[in-house]
Amino acid sequence: MILHGWHGWLLTFTGVAQLTVICLPLAALAVWLLARLRIAGGTERPWAWRRSIAEVGIVYGTLPTVWLTMLPGSHAGTAPGRVSLIPFHDLMTTSPPQLIGNLLLLAALGAFAPVRFRAFATLPRAIARAAGVSVLIELAQYVFRLDRVSSIDDVLVNTVGAGLAALASNRWWRTRTMSSAYRNPDTRRQHHAYLTVRHDPRPGHRHHRLRLRTGRGRPVPAVGTKPRRTADADRRFGD
């Protein structure tokens, strides 16, 4: 299909879909640049990439789908606004492609927002946020008279899709609080020192001496009391 002018690119499903595909390399480049800037600023590499992917994913995954819901119908501006407030009434006549589209409408927002924002890193908050955004979309369709039906079923399906996406990304946003501790250099150094404890057995010691090293191999002060040596070791070392 040949698209002509800005109307063909911005106000048709085919045009928006093609623009989304064209912008994919730009989205990947934006993720790389944001991650590199954060790593250069001292952010841990895994968290820098995770945060950058989440930010770009929210915009890239949500903006095109929401834009599609705001495309005007053939009688936009003249047809009166239509509202359906009976739950599950419109689901009986909804086609499978439309149902899948409604499930995916806010999926990116539900998946990436808990990863990026601590305030949304719980399932109830993620669901509530998605429901609020879906209600705003339905209100906009009614207010601007886009020749679309503002349906409560759309809100329900959009919210379910965002909730399922949030559950799918739960593995990453559950560690959000732990990852934020890496912003503190002292906390990061202590954490690496704890993970790299090595036993340092010395002849004649009752217990093993623990030598702590940071992630870069530098020794740090020992933790705990000094191990005692046996009487045989005292005679051996002339103490």
Question: What would you note in describing this structure?
Answer:
The protein contains twelve helices and four strands, in the order H-H-H-H-E-H-H-H-E-H-H-H-H-E-E-H. The chain has 239 residues and is mainly alpha-helical. It folds into two domains: 5-183, no CATH class; 185-237, no CATH class. The strands form two sheets. A two-stranded parallel sheet has the order 1-2. Helix 5 packs across helix 8. It is globular and about 55 Å long.
Tell me the distance between the termini.
91 Å
Share of residues in helices: 55-70%
Domain tally:
2
Overall outline: globular
Concise summary:
This protein has helices spanning 5-10, 13-22, 24-40, 45-69, 96-104, 107-116, 123-143, 152-168, 170-173, 176-180, 185-195, 231-237; strands spanning 82-84, 149-151, 198-200, 209-211. It is mostly helical and 239 residues long.
Topology of this protein?
Blueprint: H1 5-10, H2 13-22, H3 24-40, H4 45-69, E1 82-84, H5 96-104, H6 107-116, H7 123-143, E2 149-151, H8 152-168, H9 170-173, H10 176-180, H11 185-195, E3 198-200, E4 209-211, H12 231-237
Parallel strand pairs: 1-2
Antiparallel strand pairs: 3-4
Helix pairs in contact: 2-4, 3-4, 4-6, 5-8, 6-7, 6-8, 7-8
